[in-house]
Amino acid sequence: MTYYIAPRFLHKLSVHITKNFLDLPGVRVPLILGIHGHKGEGKSFQCELVFDLMGVEPIHVSAGELESPDAGDPARMIRLRYREAADYIRTHGKMAVLMINDLDAGAGRVDGATQYTVNTQLINATLMNIADNPTNVQLPGSYDSEPLPRIPVIVTGNDFGTLYAPLVRDGRMDKFYWQPNREDKIGIVSGIFEPDGISKAEIEELVDRFAKQSVDFFGALRSQIYDEQILSFIQKVGFNRVGSQVVNSKEKPTFHKPDFDLSHLIAQGELMVKEQRQLEEMRLASRYNRALHESQAPRVEASIPAPTVTPTPAPKSSNVYTHQPVHKTENHQHSNGNGTATNISEDLLGQLRSILSQGYSIGLEHVDARRFRTGSWASCATVQTQDEKEVIAALEACLSEHNNEYVRLFGIDPGAKRRVLETIIQRPEH
């Protein structure tokens, strides 16, 4: 299979690699080439095609290797891989590069919630040091006086604006924004479907039909065309026998060439686009987080009138909390107003009645002290009924079952499907 290499990509990458192996008098050559752009446009794959064409050996580093529980390990690993590339040049007499994929995912600050660790600082400092002293890259605890060959560094990512600014400055990093144009996409997609006998006119129509899609979309589309045959194979051998047919089997299943008719490709592509839109429209995580923030806002307390009952002063061993200062559920029984005795304090009963009177359901969650720090709450009960007796029974059962854990009470608006109250009513005794 012959894959297409975009001319702009080939020219930029080949010039950067070659220039770093030349001795140009009085010219400061950036060691790092940063290739950035939208997701799924084939940045890493185009790099691999260029490496194969030029006979360059890439030494890879992934974003997942740029963090460690041990401070300094990722920075040392980068230096080690750089020296590994240098050893390859010495022993094989061929060009080598250090390739770091998705650098912004491993060392960038995406938003204010991104944790900035010691390793992140050391990674930035290490890359800057290598860019400034490419022939003198030492490992901690050792010193090698022999200069290293200069190793070009190629990094890919989506948004280099998240990286440490001194690292991406001119002189250290040469930037290349990659966004394939129509001709590039037609060439790349033609390479993807080359074994399938699709004409250039059909390729152009397919690309124009899904003009807003990334290059990876068309590779995924070709893969999905095989789904019908694979499902037919699964149904034929039986769901319970698939493993024996595809793992360590002497006879692997074979599949005939599927239907790559243009209309079929477009139909499957539209299904993929529909799934994309569904994902974009749902945004469940944002919806859940928004509901949580709304429930924690001060206006929530104003929407539920505070009970007029004066809270009972708390003993030192108290473990039940409400909006009022800490107090303990009384050992003597109270009446819930319906003739049923309960161990729930009067002010907590007042809050329950206030929530129920507005038509809200009651939810309860619990968490131990260790998971409390990470906010990993587990559901204790969700009481859909408005019957006060059942609500009190569920609350007492939750408090009793998890008597040495945090317990949180919240109201649920069934119409808007969001929380209208959230308060910790019990904390473990210390």
UniProtKB/TrEMBL annotation:
Domain of life the protein comes from: Bacteria
Gene3D superfamilies assigned: 1.10.8.1070, P-loop containing nucleotide triphosphate hydrolases (3.40.50.300), Ribulose bisphosphate carboxylase, small subunit (3.30.190.10)
Alphabetic keyword roster: ATP-binding, Nucleotide-binding
Coiled-coil parts of chain: none
Span of domain Ribulose bisphosphate carboxylase small subunit: 335-428
Family statement drawn from the similarity comment of this UniProt entry: Belongs to the RuBisCO activase family.
Listed PANTHER family: PTHR32429, RIBULOSE BISPHOSPHATE CARBOXYLASE_OXYGENASE ACTIVASE, CHLOROPLASTIC
Record protein name field: Ribulose bisphosphate carboxylase small subunit domain-containing protein
